[in-house]
Amino acid sequence: MTSLSAIPKVDRMLAWPTVAAALAAHPRSLVLAVIRSVLNESRTLLLRGEPLSLQEPDLSQRFLAILAVRAAPSLRRVVNGTGIIIHTNLGRAPLSRAVASHLDGAAYGYSTLEYDLATGERGNRLDHVAPLLRELTGAEGALVVNNNAAALLLCLTALCSGREGLVSRGELVEIGGEFRIPDIIRQGGAVLREVGSTNRTHLRDYQEAIGPESGLLLKVHQSNFAQVGFTAQVSAERLVPLGREHSLPLLVDAGSGSLMDLTRFGIAGEPTVGEYLRAGVDLVTFSGDKLLGGPQAGIIVGREEYLAPLRRHPLLRALRPDKLTLAALEGTLRLYRDEGEALAEIPVLRMLTVSVAELRTRGRKLLRRLRNYLPSGFSLQLTDGVSQPGGGSCPLLSIPTILLFLSCDGLSPRKMEDRLRNAPVPVIGRISGGRFLLDLRTVLEEDEPHLVAMLRTLGTLQ
């Protein structure tokens, strides 16, 4: 058994060529922390009685492996081959390259965040996006906070605190991160009043529940699940006259929130924000980083009489977005002024609407590029499959797609997935039916060079 005394000292490792080279490229504090990590790990393994080499080449290799992990940014780019377009774990909607100039102007110098150039006086940060939201949705007014949960919280706190919020039992959903609608209602100071049953809610259920303590009617997008079978729900259109009759605002949490009707592309069942407002809904909240294709934000649009209390509420300051969010959101919204430009430039819309024929053509080009580099034993094939919108949008919708099926003699799908996930530019795919697959619908065209490079590297790692 190797003695603990054989473990090299820190100063000895510092003199090794590998470590000395690392000192020239990285902060000394980081290099020292990695050395101590290597030595502590070695000490632990020896105490367990596990076999361990303390030779310089072996410890140097371990040092470089740990240094690579610690020196790399934690938040970094990946290639999304999962087939889930709005992938929460992978950052939801990727921004359009067209917003880069907006971000650059806001990030690297001073900006007009809260400065009115016309008057030379203090301005309002939301004035950069509110006019665009009014223009694109037909709303009387608009507010932006830092996410849709915050938007819903602000509405409930400002409009319904201490009073009842009426919502169908079938809409008391839980979404990712154990976020539950009942919890946010209570956090907003409102009293939850459940209406109807889990699978069937009728207009009379709302009518019978309305009383002197009622504060608002709430309709919630069911997000990432759907009810099928013996079900019934009351549409927003049918709730509008009921709210008017009892002077109760109708608040719709639209979830993903779409500004564009995508029915002609086979994506149905998601009313646009404008459709809700034209039906008479008083306030609509939705996310900025889902179907909209922008940054994380919570957007509130609707009637000015209900937005005014939100603007005056002190919670708004705690929830307001920063300058980078506003710059990215403004840039994204400006693209929607031209539908064709939005479809071409906003990645989420592009991925949702690109044809299978175009994906197949891209796939064939990829195969030709890769087959010259991968060694014998590797196999690449194109196969049909389905993608999903993700982000709580159209949970039952499956979009036809083209998959790249990878296999290698002696390399299991799980091992292949692990190696690509830990590549310098991580490639995230999926394993289905015992096969490792990459969905070309969610691989951005600008990511194809990264994908080719990582797959070429895979051939050297057998």
Task: Report on the architecture of this protein.
Helix 3 (28-47) packs across helix 4 (56-71) and helix 15 (339-345) crosses helix 16 (347-353). Strand 11 (250-253), helix 11 (273-278) and strand 12 (283-287) form a beta-alpha-beta unit. The protein has 462 residues and is α/β, with parallel strands linked by helices. It folds into three domains: 4-71, no CATH class; 79-89 and 352-458, Aspartate Aminotransferase, domain 1 (Alpha-Beta Complex); 97-345, Aspartate Aminotransferase, domain 2 (3-Layer(aba) Sandwich). 40% of the residues lie in helices and 18% in strands. The protein has a seven-stranded mixed beta sheet with strand order 5-13-12-11-10-6-9, sandwiched between helices. The protein has a five-stranded mixed beta sheet with strand order 2-14-15-18-17.
CATH hierarchy: architecture of the largest domain: 3-Layer(aba) Sandwich
- CATH topology name of the largest domain: Aspartate Aminotransferase, domain 2
Biggest β-sheet description = 7 strands, mixed
Order the strands across the largest sheet as they lie in space.
Answer: 5-13-12-11-10-6-9
| Number of discrete domains | 3
Q: For the record, what is the CATH homologous superfamily label of the largest domain?
A: Type I PLP-dependent aspartate aminotransferase-like (Major domain)
Percentage of helical residues?
40-55%
The span between the termini is: 32 Å
Strand % is 15-25%
In terms of structural class, how would the helical and strand content be classed?
Answer: alpha/beta
The level-1 CATH class of the largest domain? Alpha Beta
The global form is globular
What is the overall pLDDT average?
A: 91
Rg, Cα atoms, Å: 27 Å
Low-confidence stretches: none
Number of DSSP strands? 18
Q: Count of DSSP helices?
A: 19
